[in-house]
Amino acid sequence: PQYSYPPGLFAALVRDILLLRKRDFHQDAQACIANLKPSLKVIGPENIPVRGPCVITVNHYHREGFGAQWLAIAIAALIPINLHWIMTGEFTYPGKWYKPLGALGSRILLKRIDIKTREKND
User: Fold this and answer.
1) How does DSSP classify residue 93?
2) Taking Cα atoms as reference points, which of 25, 114, 119 lies closest to residue 73?
3) pLDDT, mean of each 10-residue run, the chain (122 residues)
């Protein structure tokens, strides 16, 4: 599989963070999922909530070539209801040379972004 982000997404994200603009994570996630090759395969779509409240839990699975962020991206793209994400205070990057800088940068970034999706029925 090819997990790649749509062209221009990171530039738009950086621009909006610097300008303190909110982004719609649902729309960004849908753009990312539309970019997957092969396309996303959903097993058990009848279990996707169409109205709330609900709690969705995710275990951080990653491997070479697959980052855990793709789990959150897929969930945000598929769930048609307003999501409120609760996440770690920083990313840890175990064993990476950029661990100290990455942890600090992620701590600052995660405090600045407001990741919410909008209800499709608004």
Assistant:
1) -
2) 25
3) 90 89 88 92 89 82 85 91 75 84 82 49 41
CB 79 within 8 A of CB 117: yes
Q: Torsion over CA of 69, 75, 80 and 83, rounded to 10 degrees?
A: -60
Neighbouring C-beta atoms of residue 83, cutoff 10 Å: 21
**Structure-block tokens of residue 1:** 């599989």
Q: What angle do CA 6, 62, 39 make, to 5 degrees?
A: 40
Q: How many angstroms separate the CA atoms of 22 and 118, rounded?
A: 12
Cis before 53 (ω within 30)? yes
pTM of the model: 0.70
CA-to-CA dists, residue 79 to 7, 27, 103, angstroms: 23, 11, 29
